[in-house]
Amino acid sequence: MESNIKGLVAAGHEMASELKAECGAVDMRSVAKLISYLATQLEVQLVRANALAAENALARKAVQAFCDVVGDSTEVICEEIGRDGVLVILEAMKATGNMPATDAFLAEVRAQGVELLREHPAIQICSLTHVCDEFAAQLRQGEAV
């Protein structure tokens, strides 16, 4: 996903530059400005999405740490707030564990890392590029850890 966005951003900026250079028509210059603006906005959104995903990953770790503490202390907590209170906490914890958009984004980031590794000369010399391709595909599908 991110590599597609980066490609679109680069293509948009390149196309805008070409239009500005080759077309003297005012219409085409305004089109070039629009393309450049859209490419810039796409780039801004990518940066925002990456920042949100990073924050979300940290939040997920914090929730997991809280879940671990609550799980280890269920009896004490139950004595303090009662069974219904514990059920409310457990239900809230269960809801925060399901983050498919974050999972998909992180899988894509991992897969891109494997694709970068694929380009390393040692991988190519040893003819292991197919292994990298298969592993990246498995990461994207959520089949590899």
Structure commentary:
This protein has a domain at 99-145. By secondary structure, the protein is an all-alpha fold. It contains six helices and no strands. This is Ead/Ea22-like family protein. It comes from Escherichia coli.
Could you name the key traits of this structure?
mainly alpha, 6 helices, flat, Ead/Ea22-like family protein
Can you summarize this structure?
By secondary structure, the chain is an all-alpha fold.
Summarize the helices and strands and which ones pair or pack.
Layout: H1 2-22, H2 26-72, H3 74-96, H4 100-118, H5 121-125, H6 129-140
Please outline the major beta sheet. none
- Percentage of β-strand residues: under 5%
Uncertain segments are none
Tally of contiguous helical segments: 6
Please bin the fraction of helical residues: over 70%
Structural class based on helices, strands and sheet pairing: mainly alpha
Question: How many angstroms does the end-to-end distance come to?
Answer: 19 Å
Radius of gyration: 24 Å
Averaged pLDDT, please? Answer: 77
What is the molecular shape? flat
H and E string: HHHHHH
For the secondary structure, the number of strands is 0
